[in-house]
Structures are given as structure tokens and as C-alpha cells.
Amino acid sequence: MKKKSYAIIFLCVAIFSCNKITNQKSLENTSYIAQIDSINILTTDVDKTIRQELYDELSRIYLIRKVATEEVVKTKILEIEAKKRKLTIESLKDMLYARKLNEVNLRLFAEKINNSESIAELRETLVYHDINSEKGKELLTRRYKEYLLNQFTDSLKKLHNIKILLTPPHPPKITINDLITHYKGNLNSAVTFLTITDFDCHMCREHNLFFERLYSEYKGKVRFGFTHYSSYVSNSAIASECAANQGRFWEMHDSIFKPKLIPDSVALFRMAKNLKLDMNTFGNDYKNKALSEKIMDNLLKLESAGIYGTPTIMINNQLVFNSTSLDEIENMLKEEIEKVN
Asked: CB–CB of 239/38 below 8 Å?
């Protein structure tokens, strides 16, 4: 993901009179985060500028806790079962392995995980070991033990009433007015899928096909939108808006994303010519500073709303945590479609 880095610095200038000290103490019990003389800076004012970053970090914390919770639940279940049998956890594991661990089951397991000839070990990179070598057998045995333990704990979970109370952070709603946005799909849909992206971002280019697959699947039910975001006004962004002035934004969008390399101005003019655009109008628009200023204004609006990276996906003004996860995006999209049906 192409991201912008921010350093949030607050300059607090204070003259420490008794009155100022009292004000400072009261600040500790409020939602103020800083103070310049008698002017208070609210935490909410700061959070607005980093909404996407905060949501991303909270989502990462949630995922870390989710994995850790699953491990703790597994350990607790094993403790309960071991105590019931008057064994230690290690003794319980050994008993499980003793019943199942043999050459026949190892071979069947290797076939099950498609590692019948070699098995991978992650070091600095993936290293493959012959499954019949000492190291290969060691790795296969270790993986089979993990498999057996997971199968065993999953069976034990069915005997207990387990409630996971951990919930993911709710995606923040971000409403930005007057953006340069181009739409396709069902333009009357109550569900809007907005791609905030940058033609010069390599990850955006890699994932464009990924987003197009979603468009192909849901274009009858969803309004799909595109808007520009970057740290600068790119030639590709300008060219796309020049094409938009002639009603051919999406054709230029597809032309720009098609090659692996970022197109230069010569390539962009060739694309415009291939699309049979009026080249005099295209050339004049391309040099028009007002168009560049309009795009820059778009970038600044998104930045002030707390957007900091590309590609960023918003569904009905709600941020998607992982904008490169088809599963996460599609699940959220389906939820929004169900709400309006």
C-alpha cells in the first residue's frame, strides 16, 4: 500500500501561573489533547486527521487479539481435559500422539497437505526438504502433531459452551463532499463502492484486476466509483480527467492501468489518440493549470478527512481495513447489499 507518513506535533506554549496550572490539571480529565495558551485542541480534532490510520491499527490489534484468544481457549480446553484425566497437558499430548503417530498416518497426512515428495521450511525464504530425509521427516512429524492437536481441541470445543466476546472495530464513516468521482455500474444503487487510488501506485496497478472482478460480479447491484489520491498530481490523473471532459474517463482509466509500467506523457497522448479523442481539446486540457489545481484540491480534501494510503476502499462511506482482501471486501459489500434489499 502506498502510504503517507505523518508526524503529529503539537506546540504547547504556557505561562505557568496558578491559573494556568489549574487549567492544565483540568485538562487531564477532559477530551483535550493539547493546549496553546487558552486554546484547547480536542482529541477528536486530531483523530479526524488520522481516521484511516487509527482504524487500520485498531484492526491489526483486533486480529492479533483474535489469534491470541484462539490459542488461549485451546490451552484452557486442554487444561480442563488434562485435569479431568488427572494428567499434565504434555502427558495428554503424548497420549494423543502415541495413538495416531505412525508411518501410515504420516504418509496419508503428507498426501492430504500435498507434500508427498517434499516439505517446506520457512527460514529467510522457503527451503524444501525431501520428505524421506531426516529433516523432512522431522518437519512432517511436527506438522502432523499440530494437525492432531488442532483436531483434538476442535472436538473438545464441542463439549463446552464457548463465547468469544472480542469484536472487530467498527469502520469509521467518512463523508467527503465535492470530490472528483467517476461512476459506473448501477448508478441508482443505494450501495456505493468507492476506490480511492493512484494511477502511479504500483500496488493499485496490481490490484486493479482484482477490483474489476468485483465490478463484473456486482455491477448490476452496486454503484462503483473512482477518485484520485496521491501526494502529487500525476500525468496519468490529468490525462484521465482530460478524457473525462470528452466522456471517456473509464476507457482512459482502463488504458492507463493495462500496461505494467506507469505510462509517460507520450504514452498517454498515444492512448488518447487510440480512443479517438479530439487531440486539440485533449492537449489544451492537459496543459490547463485549472485542471491540475482541481485534482490537487481533491487530494487535499481526502488527506484532511484522514485518508493516508492507496488503494483505499470505502463502501457506503465506510472504510475497508484490508483493501487488497477480496474476501473482506466482498463480505462487507454483501452486507451492505442485504441492508438495502
From this structure: no
| E strand or H helix at 177 | none
Task: Read off the pLDDT of residues 46-74 as tens digits, 9 standing for 90 and up.
Answer: 888 888 888 889 988 988 998 999 999 99
Q: Output DSSP code: residue 178.
A: S
Residues 6+ apart with CB under 8 A from 188: 223
Q: What is the count of structural domains for the chain? A: 3
Nearest-angstrom CA–CA distance, 33 and 165:
31
User: What is the C-alpha separation between 244 and 291, in angstroms, rounded?
Assistant: 11
Q: Residues of 183-202 as b/e, b for ≥16 C-beta within 10 angstroms?
A: bebbeebebbbbbbbbbbbe
Q: What is the Cα–Cα distance from 163 to 73, expressed in whole angstroms?
A: 10
Residue 118, CA atoms < 13 Å, CB-side half-sphere = 7
Whether residue 199 is found in the same domain as residue 233? yes
Cite the beta strand spans of 111-187 per DSSP E.
118-122, 126-130, 182-185
| Dihedral (Cα; 178, 184, 187, 193), 10-degree rounding | -70
Which grid coordinates belong to 246? Answer: 470528452
* Residue for grid cell 473512482: 226
pLDDT in tens, 257-300: 999 899 999 999 999 999 999 999 999 999 999 999 999 999 99
Q: What is the pLDDT of residue 30?
A: 54
For residues 300 and 282, give the distance between their C-alpha atoms in angstroms, rounded to a whole number: 25
Q: Tell me the whole-structure pTM to 2 decimals.
A: 0.67
284 and 326 part of one domain: yes
φ, ψ of residue 43 in degrees (nearest 5) = -60, -40
Q: Domain with 220 in it: what CATH number? A: 3.40.30.10
The domain of 20 spans 2-48
